Amino acid sequence: MALMITDECINCDVCEPECPNEAIYPGDEIYEIDPTLCTECVGHFDEPQCQQVCPVDCIPLDPDHKETREQLTAKYDALMAAK
């Protein structure tokens, strides 16, 4: 499942540089996550780095983008092949 940033985001800027896939970007009001790039850090780290650094715990799983670990791994592989 991709992650999402809720409206509890305080725009502290700590999550964006932690994302190895560059899936996090500034939105109109809060940071947002591109679900086509988010692999929950599968392939890079054991846990999503944005969740680890978020001071307000506003980065849950996105229920609109359910993916298995295998799908996340395949997405990671495709992203790495495209680089």
What does this structure look like?
This is Ferredoxin. InterPro entries: 4Fe4S_Fe-S-bd, 4Fe4S_Fe_S_CS, PSI_iron-sulfur_center, YfhL-like. By secondary structure, the protein is an alpha+beta fold. The protein has one domain: Alpha-Beta Plaits. The chain is built from two helices and two strands. The chain has a two-stranded antiparallel ribbon with strand order 1-2. The longest helix is centred in the last third of the chain and has 14 residues, at 69-82. The protein is globular. 25% of the residues are buried. The model has no long low-confidence stretch (mean pLDDT 97).
How would you describe this structure in keywords?
repeat; two-stranded antiparallel sheet; PSI_iron-sulfur_center; electron transport; Alpha-Beta Plaits
Gap from first CA to last CA: 22 Å
Main sheet makeup: 2 strands, antiparallel
Write down the overall geometry.
globular
What count of domains describes the coordinates? 1
The sequence of SSEs as H and E is: EEHH
Query: What share of residues are in beta strands?
Result: 5-15%
The CATH topology comes to Alpha-Beta Plaits
| CATH architectural designation | 2-Layer Sandwich
Biggest sheet strand line-up: 1-2
The count of β-strands is 2
Helix-strand makeup class: alpha+beta
Rg over CA atoms, rounded to whole Å, is 12 Å
Mean pLDDT reading: 97
GO molecular function, one term: 4 iron, 4 sulfur cluster binding
Domain 4Fe-4S ferredoxin-type: 1-29, 31-64
InterPro entries: 4Fe4S_Fe-S-bd (IPR017896), 4Fe4S_Fe_S_CS (IPR017900), PSI_iron-sulfur_center (IPR050157), YfhL-like (IPR047927)
Keywords: 4Fe-4S, Electron transport, Iron, Iron-sulfur, Metal-binding, Repeat, Transport
